């Protein structure tokens, strides 16, 4: 079987349907792409964590019979991206796939037997009355300023996801570090948990994309004159087996902005933390003490100190891990932020940091 297809539409649909960041050695099938051709249609299927995608293009095949092969999706996408000819021919062979251009011929090995492994296709039915906009710029903000807080620990699996609510709350956090980042953005209209793969998908989508509810999943369809992309993605839910509660109401209650706070510029603090890191030789050197007085915020390590003037700040002191504090401050999108203590029986156990667009919480350390 030989199938001829226009190169540019194939490049375009692969850029939407195969997201490099979602290809993982920990999710084997994400490394595969299933390529199926008949006399008139080329169909590409790819899956990653929580996502099923089908890409369909029209072209010309030399057989009425349907032929399928599974190849490495990263290599296939990179190869197609490098082709400059107007058309490309995909020729199915016993042990692989030939990719033929005007002047070149490349061979991709067959990864597995297509008869023994069929990649799941996305759902085709959905609720047209339950539709939501996906704004890539919103998800780009979330990825750049909140996803750093996502847990990588296997002890609290629920915190390895972004939590979003039907009320547009967006919360990322690491329970083991007592680190949380919160913002308010329209999302999917339901309370659910989103793995990193879904954030990568939303960022990669074109503007004005819309998704429709399909049971516990969502379906996205993008159509052009030359291709159709159909994607089904499935969030996780706290009611799912082995997921558990995110305890979001408790966390968000702790993220309320106190009446008393101090405003400070981020740049001098980050510069101080970077300079202090040059002198770090052991774990004790990673402790930074924040002392707040009415007219100054003082940051102190074993080797260095900086005092920044403030106005009417509450009085308290708290210890932080300097790496975590640096991570919090460097992920703000503002030059100036507000800082206030989290108090328990009058003692500061951490701080809340916020700008106009995001609020973060970091607990102190006892080291």
Description:
This protein has 367 residues and is α+β, with helices and mostly antiparallel strands. The mean pLDDT is 94. The N and C termini lie far apart (67 Å). The protein is built from seven helices and 25 strands. The longest helix has 12 residues. The strands form four sheets. The protein has an eight-stranded antiparallel beta sheet with strand order 6-2-3-4-17-16-15-10. Helix 3 packs across helix 4 and helix 6 packs antiparallel against helix 7. Strand 11 and strand 12 form a beta hairpin.
Q: How many DSSP helices?
A: 7
Strand fraction: 35-45%
Unreliable stretches (pLDDT < 50, length at least 5) are: none
| Helix/strand/pairing category | alpha+beta
**What's the story with the biggest beta sheet?**
8 strands, antiparallel
Helix content, binned percent: 10-25%
Mean pLDDT, as a whole number?
94
Measure the end-to-end span.
Answer: 67 Å
Which oligomeric state applies? single chain
Q: Report the principal-axis shape.
A: elongated
Number of strands: 25
Going across the biggest sheet, name each strand in turn.
6-2-3-4-17-16-15-10
User: Cα-atom Rg, whole angstroms?
Assistant: 25 Å
Structural key phrases:
8-stranded antiparallel beta sheet, 7 helices, 25 strands, 19% helix
């Amino acid at each position: 079987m030989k199938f001829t297809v226009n190169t540019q539409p194939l490049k375009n649909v692969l850029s939407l349907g195969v997201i490099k960041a979602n290809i993982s050695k920990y999710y084997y099938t994400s490394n595969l792409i299933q390529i199926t051709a008949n006399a008139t249609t080329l169909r590409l299927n790819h899956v990653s964590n929580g996502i099923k995608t089908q890409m369909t293009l029209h072209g010309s095949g030399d057989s009425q019979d349907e032929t399928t092969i599974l190849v490495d999706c990263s290599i296939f996408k990179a190869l197609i991206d490098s082709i400059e000819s107007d058309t490309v021919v995909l020729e199915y062979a016993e042990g692989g796939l030939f990719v033929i251009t005007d002047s070149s011929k490349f061979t991709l090995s067959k990864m597995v037997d297509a008869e023994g492994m069929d990649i799941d296709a996305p759902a085709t039915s959905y609720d047209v009355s339950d539709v939501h906009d996906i704004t890539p710029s919103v998800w780009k903000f979330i990825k750049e300023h909140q996803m750093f807080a996502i847990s990588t620990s296997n002890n609290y699996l629920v915190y390895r996801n972004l939590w979003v609510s039907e009320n547009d709350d967006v919360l990322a956090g690491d329970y083991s570090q007592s680190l949380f980042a919160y913002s308010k953005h329209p999302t999917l209209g339901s309370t659910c948990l989103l793995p990193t793969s879904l954030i990568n998908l939303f960022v990669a989508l074109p503007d004005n994309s819309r998704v429709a509810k399909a049971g516990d999943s969502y379906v996205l369809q993008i159509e052009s004159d030359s291709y159709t992309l159909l994607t089904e993605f499935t969030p996780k839910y706290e009611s799912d087996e082995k997921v558990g509660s995110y305890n979001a109401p408790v966390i968000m209650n702790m993220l309320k902005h106190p009446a008393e706070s101090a405003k400070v510029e981020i740049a001098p603090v980050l510069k101080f933390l970077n300079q202090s890191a040059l002198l770090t030789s052991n774990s004790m050197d990673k402790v930074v003490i924040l002392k707040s007085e009415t007219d100054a915020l003082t940051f102190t390590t074993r080797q260095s100190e900086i005092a920044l003037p403030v106005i009417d700040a509450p009085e308290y002191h708290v210890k932080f891990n300097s790496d975590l504090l640096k991570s919090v401050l460097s992920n703000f999108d503002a030059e100036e932020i507000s800082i206030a203590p989290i108090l328990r029986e009058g003692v500061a156990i951490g701080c809340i940091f916020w700008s106009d667009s995001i609020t973060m919480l970091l607990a102190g350390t006892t080291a």
